[in-house]
Amino acid sequence: MSKLPGIKSYLGGKAASGTAERIINLIRPHDTLVIPFAGNCAITRKIKWPGKVLINDLDTTMVDAWRAANLGPQLEVHNLQSLDFLKMVLQRPDLGRIVVYCAPPYPHETRTSANRYNHELTAAQQLEFLEAVRWLRVDCLVSTYPNGLYAAQLSHWQRIEFQSMTHGGQRTEWLFYNYPAPTVLHDDRFSGGGNYREREYTKRNTATKAHRYQ
Length: 214
Description:
7 helices; alpha/beta; Rossmann fold; 7-stranded mixed sheet; 7 strands
């Protein structure tokens, strides 16, 4: 996984063992990956890149780190309000099939840590974000901790939950997505589970069955 210059960790990051992989295991084939709340975005750093990757963050420290990483011409880095960024992206005709992955700041009431993002979302902004994405016509995934607002606003989406390890201990993550469970993945290298042992077991089991079939 590629690293960002000067960035060791980030509040709400998905780099914990198995977390990014579980999200990648629900992403369908696409031409452009869109990340409105980038942070240090383990998803972007682990997934097999499509034709374009567009990331955005209000935190200039993270924007500068992504630009300094020099990860290739297919990466675009923006420093906009998340909804302004989304509106701009959805109006571009050159992006083909889009997948949007959103990991907005966790609602305050769901956190066990007193740590804060450099740019928080108020309760009103959380609702504004959900109202903007809940009827998107492109593939969209949204991560959060269990809470009533997201459950109500995204009640018509699919949802999985899993355990992830954070600096404050193990937490339950919710992952919403607005399409049927995928039968084909954009990147199937992590198929078979959320951790390395589960994935290796699946690979060996699949190889054994293929050998017997032949």
